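Build the 3D complex.
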Amino acid sequence: MSTTQISPTTSGDAPVVYEVTQLTPNERFARWARELGWRHLVGLLMIPIVLLPILFALSMSLKGPTASLNGVGDQRMFTAFDLSTYEMLFTETVFPRWALNSLIICGITAIGTVLMGSAAAYAFSRFRFAGRRGGLTALLIVQMFPQMLAFVAIFLLVRSLGEVYPFLGENNHVALIAIYLGGALGSNAFLMYGFFNTVPRELDEAAKIDGASHAQIFWTIILRLVLPILTVVGLLSFVGTYGDFIIAKVLMTQENNYTIAVGLYQWATRPLVTPWAQFAAGAVIAAIPVIILFMFLQKYIVSGLTAGSVKG
Amino acid sequence: MMDRSKAPEAETSPARTGQSPPGRPETHHARDIKPGFLVKLLLMMLVNAFLVFGIMSAVSAQAWGVLAGTVAILVVVNWVYFSRRAIPAKYLVPGLIFLLVFQVFVMAYTAYVAFTNYGTSHSITRDQAIERIQEYNERQMPDSPTYQLTVLERDGEISFGIVDGGVAKVGSADEPLAPVEGATVTGEGAGARIDSVEGFRALGFADLLGLPEDVTKIRVPWSDDSADGSLRTTNGTIGLRNVSALTYDAAAGTMTNVETGVVYTEGDRGSFVAPDGTELLPGWRVNVGFENFARMVTDGKLAEPFAKTMAWTFVFGFLSVLTTFAAGLLLAVTFNNMRMRSRAWYRAMLILPYAFPGFLSALIWAGMLNTSFGYINQELLGGADIAWLGDPVLAKVSILAVNLWLGFPYMFLISTGALQAIPSDIYEAATIDGAGPFRSFRSLTLPLLLVAVTPLLIASFAFNFNNFSLIYMLTSGGPKFVGNEYNLGSTDILISMVYKIAVEAGGTKDYGLASAMSIVIFVIVGLVSYIGFRKTRQLEEIN
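Done.
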């Protein structure tokens, strides 16, 4: 190892002497490998693991509509490039119907969640009333118990509601939306509450002095200022509802009413001849919106995660 | 969401409180009807119409619970939105109603059902059960006269018409037989037959073949009293009166079989029981106390699968958190080096499994792990025959492995976030004190990281404890245990066991037992969350 000495030109009382190491290429590589190279190696090793199921689904979807899970052998990846499965998916199967169901259910749920969650957050953040602390604590406690744990009672409730309001009964999307909205306040009001508290109170007070009513303050001032969090909560709610399986599975028993999750489950687990290519194409289509939303939301999700999903 | 008020409230209106700022138009007055008020009025009209409709149909369906709930909502909503007080309530009520009905109520209802024998054969009230039993046990009256029967149709509903004692009577499955006006009758005595009835269409034999329903299955009640039996037909032209072999003695509360003379007395399990122990079904719902809870540990067929499932649920939850966190943390440490190039690129790759919808990944993995045709056995292992999901131990390992694939990106993300929040100067201090990289990881990084992520690890445990989709999509709980009535298997977790008992069991659904198990899950999740809750700062935000 050869060393040279240089004196820095920094102004100081005493000249500082740094030792700079001149490395041979081999030494430099060894050092790079020790400090950084192995990190790249781990990264490169992880890539096939991470991509395997995703690429597998993609390749199955390109094998042509007759490829099944039970065919003799050919599971090899990327042996064909046949887009006809996608064409069939949209022209001959119930899949478009399921996709539409999921979009409608998740869309309405997301909008409802945003409206109800922001209204509740506004009340908790801007008003002082009896039962406020108790209400916030109760919300925190309710939030601990995922709604799906009570799916047996939800099923029984929907069955008896269906006798009174037919559109709130089994096999009805309105019932499913109403149930998802039941989970709206528990899971999101707290996140919004934290964010609403960051909007300076002086703004509403100024508006109030100018004669604005509480409704005007809410709709025209606060909601505009918290628009980012409204988007995030709406999209998170959309993704969450999109992935729900158990409640939709229990309540939707007719093929036409399935959501994407329930429908694709039926395909992927059909015995004897599993329509595997059809399922894979459906999975690719179904995953695209979620991945796009996720990439869009990534920084909010990450900051929400590390802050215990509470702090805005 | 529809009944949100847009209306400015009178008491905050400055015109009323006399604080009108200068330059404010005089016309802005509390009594003026503003557009917001009209919107509110319109929404309230819709909501009220909906609720009043619900009240009326609840009365006609005799659904008293739904009726009480609807009336309560009607009163609260109208009071809140037309009162000048309760401003916070105007914002809270829409969300609260959904929360109370579909989250809080269903939890309370779970607790209630857990103490009953609600299930396939005990799903109705006692009165309904008595009616049902009598219907199910009907047979042709020994000396039944034969009636010339006419099948009639009105608005798609099938009715039967007969002439009984010279009177033309018509009835359907929902409406008991009753004298009818405007019938033309031909023939006399037992040969009398209705030809037509005003408002009905008489169906000929050819029409009967084209009907969606089978007329031989239709039961037309003879009167409002189920003990009077019913009118049925075997061929669409001759009607016979059927009566129940069982008669109900209201005074003694017993069922008597008139053919055999056996008396069924009311047992304490919500059904009529003969002295020899045979039970008449359906029964009805009764409170059974802690029986459902006791069955989980004492019932010969249930106790063993329940204990195994409970143990596996904890093992699964714990190992899932441990493996995903270990992998996520290692990767986070690996990629948490400022000088490393393409970090963002690796990161985007690593979180792909988290971005990909979980239910789809589980289904794709299930196909890839298929023993005979799956990609893993066929291609990666060159035609191996490993029962990844079919062997009790391997299935558990496979589930943990797939969950590791699904869950490590989340742990990677939170660990990265927590690592970046640790100030770097403490490492410099540690280096000066002579600590090597492993020592500073163990003594500095890990403790500081754990403080930040422990609440999230606990939440992750609670999530995996109830990770129904993963288990159900990968193995459906299989491979099955031998000899239990609910098809339980070695990878079932508590929530999938509840699902099998409440939803998948064909004729033996047991909502009471399933709810009791849900309560067990509630208690465990509650305890786990309580521990996590004490470690979070959420409480500090309530002030």
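Residues 1-12, 306-312 of chain A have pLDDT under 50 and may be disordered.
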